[in-house]
Design a protein that fits this description.
The complex is a heterodimer. Chain A has helices at about 1-45, 55-60, 65-95, 105-110, 120-130, 135-140, 155-185, 185-195, 200-230, 230-235, 240-250, 260-280, 305-330, 350-355, 355-390, 395-410, 410-420, 435-460, 460-470, 475-485, 490-505, 505-510, 520-530, 535-560; strands at about 45-50, 50, 100, 300, 335, 345. By secondary structure, chain A is mostly helical. In chain A, the strands form 3 sheets. Chain A has a two-stranded antiparallel ribbon. Chain A has a two-stranded parallel ribbon with strand order 3-4. In chain A, strands 5-6 form a two-stranded antiparallel sheet. In chain A, helix 15 (about 355-390) packs across helix 18 and helix 16 packs across helix 18. By secondary structure, chain B is an alpha+beta fold. Chain B folds into 2 domains: about 5-225, 3-Layer(aba) Sandwich (Rossmann fold); about 230-355, Beta Barrel (OB fold (Dihydrolipoamide Acetyltransferase, E2P)), CATH 2.40.50.140. In chain B, helix 2 crosses helix 3, helix 2 (about 90-100) packs parallel to helix 4 and helix 3 packs across helix 4. Chain B is elongated and about 75 Å long. Chain B starts with a strand and ends in a 9-residue tail after the last strand. The chains are: A mainly alpha, B alpha+beta. The interface of A and B includes residues 4, 12 and 482 of A.
Chain lengths: ~575, ~375
């Protein structure tokens, strides 16, 4: 009896250790590094020297510049949504209704912007749209205009940012719309046919209302991203954007508490937009009534008939890669001045990357920080995914919700929160931001690792683990010898993704890396970009290297994960 | 190892998968848990294994309460329905796994593994990966893995359901042989009554979470205690009847096709009570050459349908009110009967059984 009791207690302990231990660990980490920073912001926004106060908000609303920036960013969000709709809707319709040679390749290329960091593209925009920039030269060369157009002056800069955001974000809307359209029962189209309904009326009255929920799911993501993105407006030089103003206020935020109010404003607006749209617009999921296998009716076009499609797709793809193409050209260019394309090419800037201190620091730091944060993600992610997927304890819904929170929180909010929460503590970013950067990278990428691990666990039959336990192995041993080896591929993919996106992280890196010896890659690019002279060129070379790294990692991950890649990016 | 289920209940929310089962599995038995899908038999097995905890009740191994003992501490071996072979390990490593947990010396491990491979006739396949084996071979690896650890109880969860008919028959013989050779208490879950009848020392029939009857195969077949068991194990004719009385050792009932005498009753019915009467198709005698047979319970029926199966011929006979009676004649002689002909049929009283009427509708699973 004693032996059995002992064994029972030992095993129950291990069971609970893994289950509750993981929950405590992950909640502890998330409370300290996700919830606490946001809470601190909220507290400081409402607390004055004499207690609760709304003074900061009053000052905020009276500050013209801040209010103008807020309106600008909201407008930016809205315009971006409209622009992405204009781009994505025709593409989605073409994808759903038409079939033509080369469709798979072209529609695949449409998704390229998802893997091209907008931050890097923003470097190219200046060169493209400067007074003597490529676009102006092109227009003047072909006689479309006499004087150079001031693309980046005054209010026009808004449109440059909006364009960059739209080009980066349209794939999200495109994917959402495509799946929404794919879910619409094609027999609905047949019914409309038999009733003699015109194509336009059909689109308006049948297709659109049914696709609407999927559309709004994507539109929310687009809006919130465009509204809160720091990297792009910063590099383009759009000072009157909300995220940029917040960025500029970070260094003296304790003397000027209005910054807190501004960030709270961002949080509140994000939440409001999120919930309102979830409730009112995308809440209704229409259940398709027909059951059984239905084939989608597509209209087949041959090479000639599909010409308009080629033009459309080609144009969008070209437009999407243009910023990055220009960065690539810049990085190889020698004395590119006043010509549409560079006249001379050189590898000098890549030499500079290797020779100059700042880029090398950036690379080294990013490799170190991203590597460590990926290890943290691996450890936490596997534990969390295992506890959730195998339902080791109750309350897994709560655990899952909290773990996914970083996806919903805008980058600047979290980074700002870290600065105000951890100044004066051992993690003070003003003194040594390394630990905080690693933690910030890890927290923000954790959802991807959890998703990758969960996907692997879903594919691995429970009975393989049950068999292990039946034959006497503890949960630890089962995890080690059975589960982890079987999901190793998914974990590798998750690591590649976490690593790649950590390498190209923008918000945390720009805001938290206060001292140049700790600059990660993105901040090094930013600093180089601001330098006079050839800084911009070295920054371009560095940016191109970053993109190549991202591409390699994503290719590796997609090799391993296959079609499941799309699941990692949903909201 | 004797296994006792004591008032075992398992509920999932509002659904009762197993509702209050008392069952004793004798040491060394090859004990079948038989029943249709969703009857709770797999749940019973998983509770035995320790993969599920009962909602209430006790589980005893040789008198010791193991109800809350984790699976890993129970010393059982299990063959899963989908085999659950670890795809990233060779056959040999799969078998060794349970042994390495027991911290044996590597010599002992090799010896036990070789034994298991020999018993299941897989000695040549030790270094293959599961993906390189056929279904039958995979099943044998799962079995080898389970017996290598010398378990106190061996659990088999529908081990033959993924195999084709020919292979199934082969494996049935293998399993019987191995059980006799090793003498391990074995609990075998299946929905196939032929497996249960041909291999089992004891068979427990389950339905909708309840244990209906436990008996050795012959008794189960000849003396089912309910219409459900009579129908589930083998085929039978079930007629609704009214109990007429008990005289001279015979129970008389009145059916819509005539009065029938039965030598046994599983009910305590009184005169006038509704009952069900059961007799197997092979017990129905037809004189296909014409003339009478000296036997009891003569029924005059019309021939409704004929099915010739080679080793037997199935006669579907119909009474005046449409009641169907099926007769199975083995080694059928040539005859001239045609659909519509009147046929005389007899059933011996020893082959007729009076059963309680089913008060609830049969589950439509």
């Amino acid at each position: 009896m004693t032996a059995a009791t002992g064994a029972r207690r030992h095993f129950a302990l291990t069971e609970n250790l893994i289950g509750y231990g993981t929950i405590l660990l992950i909640l502890g980490v998330l409370v300290a590094f996700l919830i606490a920073p946001v809470a601190v912001i909220l507290v400081k926004a409402f607390r004055g020297p004499d207690g609760f106060t709304l003074e900061y908000f009053q000052l905020l609303f009276q500050n013209e510049l801040h209010m103008e920036a807020t309106v600008n960013s909201l407008a930016l969000g809205l315009v971006t949504v409209l622009a992405t709709t204009v781009i994505a809707l025709p593409l989605a319709l073409v994808n759903a209704k038409l079939e033509f040679p080369g469709k798979t390749l072209l529609t695949g290329l449409l998704l390229m912007p998802m893997v091209m960091p907008p931050f890097v593209g923003a470097i190219g925009i200046q060169r493209f749209f400067a007074r003597r920039g490529v676009v102006n030269l092109f227009l003047m060369e072909f006689g479309l205009t006499d004087a150079p157009i001031e693309w980046l002056e005054g209010s026009r800069i808004f449109w440059a940012v909006a364009l960059l955001e739209a080009l980066h974000l349209y794939p999200i809307l495109y994917l959402n719309l495509t799946s929404a359209l794919a879910n619409i029962d094609p027999s609905l189209d047949d019914v409309a046919d038999t009733l003699g309904v015109s194509k336009w009326k059909r689109l308006k009255d049948i297709t659109w209302p049914l696709a609407r929920p999927g559309y709004f799911a994507g539109a929310i993501i687009v809006f919130i991203w465009a509204f809160t993105d720091l990297g792009t407006p910063l590099l383009v030089g759009y000072q009157q954007a909300l995220p940029v103003r917040i960025f500029n206020m970070i260094s003296d935020v304790n003397e000027n508490p209005m910054g807190f109010a501004l960030v709270v404003l961002v949080i509140v607006m994000t939440l409001v937009i999120f919930f309102v749209s979830k409730l009112a617009l995308s809440g209704r999921k229409y259940e398709m009534m027909a059951r059984g296998h239905v084939t989608n009716r597509v209209q087949k076009l041959n090479f000639v008939g599909a010409l308009p499609c080629y033009l459309l797709l080609g144009f969008v793809i070209l437009l999407a890669v243009t910023p990055h193409l220009s960065v690539a050209l810049t990085s190889f260019s020698d004395n590119w001045f006043m010509t549409i394309l560079p006249e001379h090419y050189t590898l000098e800037h890549y030499h500079q990357v290797l020779a100059t201190e700042l880029p090398m620091i950036g690379i080294k730091n990013s490799l170190l920080f991203s590597g460590l944060s990926t290890l943290v993600d691996l450890f936490l992610g596997v534990l969390v995914a295992y506890v959730i997927a195998r339902k080791i304890v109750p309350f897994t819904g709560l655990l899952e919700g909290v773990t996914m929170m970083p996806l919903a929180l805008p980058g600047i909010v979290l980074a700002f929160g870290y600065v105000v929460t951890f100044t004066g503590t051992p993690l003070d970013p003003f003194i040594n931001p390394m630990t905080l950067l690693i933690i910030a990278y890890a927290i923000r990428r954790l959802p991807y690792m959890v998703r990758a691990a969960t996907a692997g666990l879903m594919q691995t039959s429970r009975s393989l683990e049950e068999a292990s336990m039946v034959f006497g192995a503890s949960r630890f041993m089962t995890l080690r010898r059975i589960t982890v080896p079987l999901i190793a591929a998914n974990l590798v993919a998750g690591c590649l993704l976490c690593f790649a996106y950590a390498m190209l992280d923008v918000s945390d890196s720009l805001i938290l890396a206060m001292k140049d010896q700790y600059y990660p890659l993105t901040k090094a690019i930013y600093a180089l970009f601001l330098e006079q002279g050839s800084g911009e060129l070295t920054a371009s070379a560095l940016g191109v290297l970053g993109m190549i790294l991202l591409a390699i990692c994503l290719l590796g991950a997609s090799r391993v994960l296959g079609k499941k890649m799309g699941e990692l990016f949903r909201s | 190892m004797e296994v006792v289920f004591e008032r075992i209940v398992k509920k999932y929310g509002d659904v009762t998968a197993v509702g209050g089962v008392d069952l004793t599995i004798k040491s060394g038995a090859l004990h079948f848990l038989l029943g249709p899908s969703g009857c709770g038999k797999t749940t019973m097995l998983r509770m035995l294994a320790g993969l599920e905890a009962p909602s209430s009740g006790r589980l005893l191994f040789n008198g010791k309460d193991v109800t809350n003992l984790p699976a890993a501490a129970r010393g059982i071996g299990m063959v899963f329905q989908n085999y659950a072979l670890w795809p990233h390990m060779t056959v040999r490593k799969n078998i060794e796994y349970g042994l390495t947990v027991q911290k044996m010396s590597s010599d002992q491990i090799r010896q036990r593994t070789d034994e298991a491979l020999a018993i299941t006739q897989l000695s040549r396949y030790g270094d293959r990966l599961p993906g390189q084996l056929s279904g039958g071979q995979q099943q044998r690896v799962a079995l080898a893995r389970a017996i290598a650890v010398r378990p106190t109880v061996l659990l088999l969860d529908e081990p033959l359901s993924n195999l084709d008919a020919q292979l199934r028959l082969e494996m049935r013989d293998n399993l019987s042989r191995i059980h006799k050779q090793l003498g391990i208490t074995t609990v075998y879950v299946t929905h196939d009554q032929k497996e249960a009848l041909s291999m089992g020392t004891d068979v427990s029939v389950f339905r909708a979470g309840q244990l209906i009857q436990t008996d050795p195969p012959r008794q189960l077949y000849h003396a089912p205690k309910s219409a459900f068991v009579a129908r589930f194990v083998g085929e039978t004719n079930l007629l609704t009847a009214t109990y007429l009385g008990h005289k001279d050792g015979l129970h008389s009932v009145k059916t819509t096709i005539g009065a029938i005498d039965a030598s046994r009753s599983m009910t305590s019915a009184k005169v006038g009570d509704p009952v069900t009467v059961s007799f197997r198709p092979e017990a129905v005698k037809l004189n296909l050459g014409g003339g009478d047979i000296a036997s009891d319970n003569r029924l005059t029926l019309k021939l409704d349908h004929l099915t010739y199966l080679g080793e037997s011929e199935q006669f579907q006979l119909m009474g005046q009110d449409g009641t169907l009676v099926r007769a199975s004649v083995f080694n059928p002689p040539d005859h001239t009967l045609a659909v519509g002909d009147t046929v005389a049929a007899w059933v011996a009283a020893e082959d007729v059984l009076v059963l309680p009427t089913e008060t609830d509708q049969p589950a439509s699973t």
